[in-house]
Specification:
Blueprint: H1 2-24, H2 30-53, H3 57-65
Helix pairs in contact: 1-2
Keywords: Membrane, Transmembrane, Transmembrane helix
Length: about 70
């Protein structure tokens, strides 16, 4: 479970780094912008799916304690 969050975070950071590089460099290839945006969106998609799948986990833990 924590590995999934780590992978999502790495994807988002790598995508952001590519976008920052593409924006700051004068002669950066446009594919860096496209690739960075795709990687960020993929990381965010995976993260939101993970959050939706685990949003009610705390309720199950409370029921077990009672």
């Amino acid at each position: 479970m924590k590995n999934t969050q780590l992978i999502n975070t790495i994807l988002i950071v790598v995508g952001g780094a590519l976008l920052l590089y593409a924006i700051s460099a004068e002669e950066a290839h446009p594919y860096f912008k496209i690739g960075g945006l795709i990687i960020i969106m993929f990381g965010l998609y995976r993260a939101t799916n993970f959050w939706v799948a685990t949003k009610d986990d705390h309720k199950e833990d409370e029921n077990k304690d009672s």
